[in-house]
Specification:
Keywords: Oxidoreductase
Pfam family, one: GFO_IDH_MocA
Structural class: alpha/beta
GO molecular function, one term: nucleotide binding
Number of strands: 14
Mean pLDDT: 96
Protein name: Putative oxidoreductase
Radius of gyration: 20 Å
CATH topology of the largest domain: Dihydrodipicolinate Reductase, domain 2
Distance between the termini: 20 Å
Shape: globular
CATH superfamily of the largest domain: Dihydrodipicolinate Reductase, domain 2
Strand content: 15-25%
InterPro entries: Gfo/Idh/MocA-like_OxRdtase_N, Gfo/Idh/MocA_domain, GFO_IDH_MocA-like_dom, NAD(P)-bd_dom_sf
Amino acid sequence: MATEKTAERGTVRWGIVGPGRIAAKVVRDFGHLDAAEPVAVASRDAHRAAAFAAEHGIARPHGSYRAILDDDEVDAVYIATPHPQHRAIALAAIAAGKAVLVEKAFTVTPAATREVADAARAAGVFAMEAMWTRFQPAIVKLRELIADGAIGEVRSVQADLGVSQPYNPADRYYDPKVGGGALFDLTVYPISFAQMVLGEPDEVVARGLLAPSGVDTEESVLLTFPGGRTATLFTSLRCLTPGQARVVGTEGWIDVPPRFHHPDRGVLRRHGKDPEEFLAPATGGGYFHELEEVTAGLLAGRTESTVMPLADTIAVQDVMGLVAEQLGIDPQEGPAEL
């Protein structure tokens, strides 16, 4: 098992599955980790894998996903393929004894997320969603302030995240076959942020727009929580928005300036006091912190993260499932050629 091997050796050997734009950013942050190194990369296109490996100094390119899962020199895999492929690759990796860091959104259906989580728990294999927001130092500080009662009882979360991406049916953002739409690329962030602060909602109400291709382009989501607490969220592929968040409590509030999903600071505003800005920049490109979490977890013999536990990923995916249902979209998990 990966956990046993890495604990004994003291180094986590990583494989990259899906050498795309995000993977290129993530792999650069391995340079900040002493106990981890990327040793392999896999694509269904052997030339693409070879080019990525050459660019990033990775020793072994593989021309199939199955090949990297059969690679005994790989302990953990970072899965950055299109969303509908996450389930199949994660299940195969877990069956092969590889730890998995699965790019958000974890899957495209609540059932698939539970299936992967159950498989990881049953096999005793580390699994985590790559929700980098939760590991940003500024967000860690925000959570500490909330826990210390800096703003009293938390009552509301507000967040937005929008980009201007004109409609193009050939663009991945608008292609349902690769999990296009705002929900899996954008809305997952404010939903996860709200769940992190407020827990699991009692009710989900979503309204939005669909593109001609059938994916969602914009949505407003209202979440209600026990005790009448609420989260109001807005995301869009049509409108560039500030991308900010606010957590409101009975004794003040905390602003997370744009873009809230990878901030370098926050502002605490206590009633009757001057604003208190806290600076907490990320290391590297900001992906270092989630890589460190998995690496440290494997070396310590853990199978889940306490910062991004599987239960939270399941809760977020449940909300996303209800949003999809109310908007009239029907995302489908796709097969992955292993």
